[in-house]
Design a protein that fits this description.
Elements: H1 2-112
Length: 164
C-alpha cells in the first residue's frame, strides 16, 4: 500500500512535470513565432530605411546648397542697399548743385540785362547755318541673280592714271 501510494505520488509528480514542460514548450513556441514575425518586420523596416537615408542625404546636400545661395543673395541684397544709399546721396548732392547752378545762371542772366534774355538772338554778323554730316559712300557687290533689286546709283569717276 505504501508502495502504491508512492507510485501514485510519483505518477502525479511525473504528470505535473510533463504538464509543466508541455506548457513551457508551448510558450517557447509562441515566443519563437513572435520573434520570427518581429525579425521579418525588422528586415522590412530596414529595407524601407535604406532608400530614405539616401534621400535624406540628397535633401541635406540640397539644403546646404540652398543655404549657401541664400547667404549669397543676402549679401547681394545688403550690397544693393548700400549702393542705393550711395546713389540717393549722390542724387541729393547733384540736385543741390543743379539748384545752385540754376540760381547762379539766373543771377548771371539778370546781370547781363534784357538783350540776353532771348536765346534765339544771335550776335551781330553771325548767320545761322545747317550743318549736314557727310554720309560715307558704301559700295557693295551686286547680287548674281541677274535681277536688279535697287535703283541704279551714279558711278564715281575713277582716278586718272599717273602720267609716265
Amino acid at each position: 500500500m505504501k508502495s502504491n501510494i508512492l507510485i501514485a505520488i510519483a505518477l502525479l509528480i511525473a504528470v505535473a512535470i510533463g504538464g509543466f514542460a508541455w506548457t513551457k514548450h508551448q510558450a517557447l513556441e509562441a515566443t519563437r513565432a513572435e520573434l520570427a514575425a518581429t525579425n521579418a518586420k525588422l528586415q522590412q523596416a530596414e529595407a524601407r530605411i535604406k532608400p530614405l537615408e539616401a534621400s535624406v542625404e540628397t535633401l541635406r546636400a540640397e539644403s546646404a546648397a540652398q543655404q549657401k545661395s541664400l547667404e549669397q543673395l543676402k549679401t547681394e541684397v545688403a550690397n544693393a542697399k548700400v549702393f542705393l544709399e550711395v546713389e540717393k546721396e549722390s542724387g541729393v548732392r547733384l540736385r543741390d548743385e543743379l539748384a545752385k547752378t540754376r540760381e547762379a545762371f539766373a543771377l548771371a542772366m539778370k546781370a547781363r540785362g534784357p538783350q540776353a534774355a532771348s536765346p534765339m538772338q544771335l550776335p551781330p554778323g553771325m548767320i545761322p547755318m545747317l550743318v549736314r554730316p557727310q554720309m560715307p559712300l558704301r559700295v557693295e557687290r551686286a547680287p548674281t541673280s541677274g535681277a536688279a533689286l535697287e535703283a541704279a546709283s551714279p558711278a564715281r569717276a575713277a582716278p586718272a592714271p599717273a602720267p609716265r
